[in-house]
Amino acid sequence: MNRKIRQWFASASALRGMLSTFAPYLGAGIKVTKVAEDFSAATVELRQHWYNTNYVGTHFGGSLYSMVDPHYMLLLMRRLGTGYIVWDKSASIDFIRPGKGTVRAHFELTDERVEEIRRMTAEGDKYLPEWDIDILDESGELVARVHKVLYVRKKR
């Protein structure tokens, strides 16, 4: 990882600021509102504006997916350190109801989950941890659920 990228990961506030000003996020209206100092959690929101509303008056499905795309990968990279390879492997999204207004997603990466991943990759094997991320509207109703699979392996 080059020096400039490492600086983006240097602190939770630096990561939050970098992601919130990342051009694809700015253009979609996505904002990272919280990253825990220990990189154990993050919260992201997508506010509805004229420029991110589709033909039928709801959030674009692609924007709903974009808001959750990199976060488990980034949190896990930071928690595991530079001795691991972490990639997004696959994802799917299930649209439950139309998304309107402000929608939010929360990510939690527990110590137990990190230790599980360390244990499963200790011998150099790949591991494919999975998460479900709920995207909720302002009233707490489920708008969409994203299923993410990461690829993790200890560097040789």
Task: Describe the protein in words.
This protein is of the alpha+beta class. The protein has a single domain, classed as Hotdog Thioesterase (Thiol Ester Dehydrase, Chain A), CATH 3.10.129. Helices cover 31% and strands 32% of the residues. It contains six helices and six strands; from the N terminus they run αααββααββαββ. It has helices at 3-8, 12-20, 23-28, 61-66, 71-80, 111-121, and strands at 30-35, 41-46, 84-95, 103-108, 130-136, 142-154. The protein has a six-stranded antiparallel beta sheet with strand order 1-2-4-5-6-3. A hairpin with a 5-residue loop joins strand 1 (30-35) and strand 2. The longest helix has 11 residues, at 111-121. The mean pLDDT is 91. InterPro entries: DUF4442 (IPR027961), HotDog_dom_sf (IPR029069).
Task: Write the SSE topology.
Elements: H1 3-8, H2 12-20, H3 23-28, E1 30-35, E2 41-46, H4 61-66, H5 71-80, E3 84-95, E4 103-108, H6 111-121, E5 130-136, E6 142-154
Antiparallel strand pairs: 1-2, 2-4, 3-6, 4-5, 5-6
